[in-house]
Backbone:
């Protein structure tokens, strides 16, 4: 997907590689979430794309922010976000990070371990704290594994402890990013209902995370379909539904962006045609690790044939697709452009170090 505004910008042919983002798409997506899940609060996951214009576009649609560090808090406040619209969703935080957040007015946190919960009670007294439960989401393209979330029995005791420590308890989960299976949310919502019942707490807030998929090469449910599944699960598992919080990142910003790259080299190796681009694993395409995200490519018309697609660095892992089928025009030459579609999320934000002297991915936000 690329908007007319993006097409007009591309006509100016700035040097590649770069990401171009249309913030109007971001605003529209946040509004769509609000329409599909009325009464919920949306916290855009800043790590997907922290460009100031993207943050302003979220604000314009009335969204808040899921922040993971003092740096992200500062970035959101600088664009005019109110501290009450920030939720500190990272369970991994230093004491100094909690103190920073609290002193800047943040009153909403997520936790999944007792020591972090006690740290919150000490340094962010009286705050709303959601206990993140581990939810299995095997269909996710980029699963979290066991890094975050506690098992239900531990969540029960943390929920009680949070209340005992004078915090306002809630529950949270995240089904893994690019999650094409809406029933993953049902598992999370059912588990949350059970945990709350066992803890003897009437759940007021439930954070169902991000993970809403977008269409790269394969069809995923529409936002309306995800939302219908979530509403049905809530009705099935809660007599009085809690207020929902959402933390979408990818589904808000991916479709707002396009990466324009250029072919550096075409070569035949072991009977396969290798195409090397000026963008790769280390300057924007981190999510091609394990070929997790199969981006759609547009390199113009003409007869196509299969390629192995690789990035420009001297690193052997900087190969984008060698198993994922990839077809590009047979006439492709060095200097030709290749567009990577729906690339607004988890591209420039992962590209923060100039590995091999290649600059981090430049981003242009249209106004
Ligand atoms: C990364 C992250 C998100 C955003 O996930 P998406 O799959 O991009 O929607 C939301 N919540 C937390 C806690 C995260 O770490």
Residues:
């Amino acid at each position: 997907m690329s908007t007319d505004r993006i097409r007009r910008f591309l006509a100016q042919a700035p040097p590649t590689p770069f990401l171009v983002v249309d913030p109007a798409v971001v605003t529209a997506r946040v509004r769509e979430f609000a329409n599909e899940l009325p009464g919920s609060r949306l916290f855009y996951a800043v790590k997907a794309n922290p460009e100031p214009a993207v943050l302003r576009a979220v604000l314009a649609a009335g969204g808040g922010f899921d922040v993971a560090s003092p740096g992200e808090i500062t970035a959101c406040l600088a664009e005019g976000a109110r501290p009450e619209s920030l939720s500190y969703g990272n369970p991994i935080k230093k004491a100094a990070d909690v103190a920073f957040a609290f002193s800047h007015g943040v009153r909403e946190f997520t936790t999944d371990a007792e020591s972090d919960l006690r740290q919150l009670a000490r340094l962010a007294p009286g705050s709303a704290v959601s206990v993140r439960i581990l939810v299995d989401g095997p269909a996710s393209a980029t699963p979290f594994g066991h890094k975050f979330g506690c098992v239900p029995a531990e969540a029960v005791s943390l929920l009680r402890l949070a209340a005992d420590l004078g915090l306002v308890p809630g529950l949270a989960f995240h089904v893994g990013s690019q999650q094409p299976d809406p029933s993953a949310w049902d598992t999370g919502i059912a588990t949350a209902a059970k945990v709350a019942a066992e803890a003897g707490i009437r759940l007021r807030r439930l954070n169902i995370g991000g993970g809403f998929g977008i269409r790269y090469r394969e069809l995923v449910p529409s936002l309306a379909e995800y939302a219908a599944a979530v509403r049905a699960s809530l009705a099935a598992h809660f007599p009085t539904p809690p207020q929902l919080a959402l933390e979408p990142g990818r589904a808000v910003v991916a479709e707002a962006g396009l990466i324009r790259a250029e072919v550096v080299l075409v070569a035949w190796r072991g009977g396969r045609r290798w195409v090397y681009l000026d963008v790769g694993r280390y300057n924007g395409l981190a999510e091609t690790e394990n070929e997790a995200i199969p981006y759609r490519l547009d390199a113009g018309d003409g007869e196509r044939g299969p390629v192995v697609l690789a990035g420009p660095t001297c690193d052997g892992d900087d190969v984008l697709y060698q198993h994922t089928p990839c077809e590009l025009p047979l006439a492709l030459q060095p200097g030709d452009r290749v567009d990577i579609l729906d690339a607004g999320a988890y591209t420039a934000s992962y590209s923060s170090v100039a590995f091999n002297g290649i600059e981090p991915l430049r981003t242009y936000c249209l106004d």
